[in-house]
Design goal:
- The protein is mostly helical.
- 86% of the residues lie in helices and 2% in strands.
- It has a two-stranded antiparallel ribbon.
- Helix 1 packs antiparallel against helix 2, helix 1 packs parallel to helix 3 and helix 2 packs antiparallel against helix 3.
- The termini are far apart.
Length: 180
C-alpha cells in the first residue's frame, strides 16, 4: 500500500508532479489490492465449492457405512441360505467404500480419518458377522450330525422292533396253523 505522503508547498499550491506521482502510486497499490482480493475471492469460492463436495462425499460415505452396518446386522440375525451372497455383496461394498475413501484428497484429513474409522468399524462388524456365521454353521453341522446319529439309532431300533414283530407274527401264524 502507498505510504502517506506530504507535499511541498509552492507559491501556487502543491507541486503537480508530486501529486500526480502520488496518485499514480496509490492507483497501483489499489489495483494490486483489488487483484489480490479477486484472486483470494476466487480461491475462496473454489475451496468453498470443494468443501461442499467433500461434505456431500463424506455424508454419502457415512450413509453407505450406516446402510452396510444395518445390512450386516440383519445378516448376523438372519442366516438364511443366501447368506454367503449377501455377505460377499457387503464385503464388495466395503471394499468400494475403502476405494472411495482412498480417493478423497489429503485436504480433508479430519473427515478422512472419521470415514476411515467408520469403515474400520464396519470391517470389524463384517469380521464379527463372518465369525458368528462360522460358529452358527459349526453348531448347525454339529446338530445335524447329532440328529443323523439319533436317526440311525432310531432306524436300527425300529428295524429290530419290526424283526421282533415279524418273529412274533410268524410264531402266531405257526401256532394258528397248527390249531386249525
Amino acid at each position: 500500500m502507498a505510504e502517506s505522503k506530504s507535499f511541498s508547498v509552492s507559491r501556487k499550491g502543491y507541486k503537480p508532479a508530486e501529486v500526480d506521482e502520488y496518485v499514480a502510486s496509490a492507483e497501483r497499490a489499489y489495483n494490486e489490492l483489488r487483484e489480490s482480493y479477486a484472486a483470494l475471492q476466487t480461491r475462496y469460492d473454489s475451496l468453498f465449492e470443494e468443501n461442499g463436495t467433500l461434505i456431500k462425499e463424506r455424508e454419502q460415505l457415512r450413509q453407505g457405512c450406516k446402510t452396510m452396518a444395518a445390512a450386516l446386522k440383519q445378516l448376523r440375525e438372519n442366516t438364511s441360505e443366501d447368506y454367503k451372497a449377501k455377505y460377499e455383496e457387503a464385503v464388495a461394498q466395503l471394499e468400494e467404500l475403502k476405494a472411495q475413501q482412498a480417493a478423497v484428497p489429503a485436504s480433508v484429513a479430519v473427515e478422512q480419518s472419521s470415514a476411515s474409522q467408520m469403515i474400520e468399524e464396519v470391517a470389524q462388524v463384517v469380521k464379527r458377522v463372518e465369525s458368528d456365521a462360522r460358529r452358527k454353521a459349526e453348531a448347525v453341522t454339529a446338530a445335524a450330525k447329532l440328529e443323523q446319529a439319533q436317526a440311525q439309532l432310531i432306524h436300527s431300533r425300529v428295524n429290530e422292533e419290526v424283526k421282533s414283530l415279524i418273529q412274533v407274527l410268524e410264531g402266531f401264524l405257526e401256532e394258528h396253523e397248527e390249531n386249525e
